[in-house]
């Protein structure tokens, strides 16, 4: 799945398959400007920052179990969000400080460091990615991912795929080659 935020005409947090199909709103009320987003892949939770409401909130992958992690002035101007173990990590764009927020106890907020022009944060940890033995976009014997001549996108699950073409090309009737 692909998770993303949108605060155009109607602010929302959404998810869809990697090929863009099955687009679903998981949050579409009491949200104004959702920006940074992070996933808890183990427990299947979506965290996001709303910069207008000065809040960090969470829902499960289906949009249920919504609650506010932290809200108020102390978390103004947040950008970037990462989750690891019991903490959320984010960047304050005003003073470029990196904050650590306990996602189970919002009174535990610490400023860890300052980095000029910091705007994004990521946690790289092998345990955060599940291992998939095989998937539909693996390179075939001819060197084409998923048998697609240009772009292979996972579909509704890791065993299904959709082929797409680069700009200026159209997908052939075989659903794999681009012309």
From TrEMBL:
<dbReference type="InterPro" id="IPR050778">
    <property type="entry name" value="Cueball_EGF_LRP_Nidogen"/>
</dbReference>
<feature type="repeat" description="LDL-receptor class B">
    <location>
        <begin position="1"/>
        <end position="43"/>
    </location>
</feature>
<dbReference type="GO" id="GO:0005886">
    <property type="term" value="C:plasma membrane"/>
</dbReference>
<protein>
    <submittedName>
        <fullName>LRP1B protein</fullName>
    </submittedName>
</protein>
<dbReference type="InterPro" id="IPR011042">
    <property type="entry name" value="6-blade_b-propeller_TolB-like"/>
</dbReference>
<dbReference type="GO" id="GO:0017147">
    <property type="term" value="F:Wnt-protein binding"/>
</dbReference>
<dbReference type="GO" id="GO:0060070">
    <property type="term" value="P:canonical Wnt signaling pathway"/>
</dbReference>
<dbReference type="Pfam" id="PF14670">
    <property type="entry name" value="FXa_inhibition"/>
</dbReference>
<feature type="repeat" description="LDL-receptor class B">
    <location>
        <begin position="44"/>
        <end position="87"/>
    </location>
</feature>
<dbReference type="GO" id="GO:0042813">
    <property type="term" value="F:Wnt receptor activity"/>
</dbReference>
<dbReference type="Pfam" id="PF00058">
    <property type="entry name" value="Ldl_recept_b"/>
</dbReference>
<dbReference type="InterPro" id="IPR000033">
    <property type="entry name" value="LDLR_classB_rpt"/>
</dbReference>
């Amino acid at each position: 799945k692909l998770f993303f935020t949108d605060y155009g005409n109607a602010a929302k947090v959404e998810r869809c398959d990697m090929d863009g199909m099955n687009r679903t709103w998981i949050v579409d009320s009491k949200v104004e400007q959702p920006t940074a987003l992070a996933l808890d892949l183990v427990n299947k939770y979506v965290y996001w920052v709303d910069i207008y409401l000065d809040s960090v909130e969470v829902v499960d992958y289906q949009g249920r179990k919504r609650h506010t992690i932290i809200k108020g002035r102390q978390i103004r101007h947040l950008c970037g969000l990462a989750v690891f173990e019991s903490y959320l990590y984010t960047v304050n764009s005003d003073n470029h400080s990196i904050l650590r927020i306990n996602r189970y106890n919002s009174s535990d907020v610490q400023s860890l460091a300052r980095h000029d022009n910091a705007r994004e944060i990521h946690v790289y940890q092998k345990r955060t990615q599940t291992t998939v033995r095989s998937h539909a976009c693996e390179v075939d014997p001819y060197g084409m991912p998923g048998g697609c001549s240009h772009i292979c996108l996972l579909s509704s699950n890791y065993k299904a795929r959709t082929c797409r073409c680069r700009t200026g090309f159209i997908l052939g009737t075989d659903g794999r080659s681009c012309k």
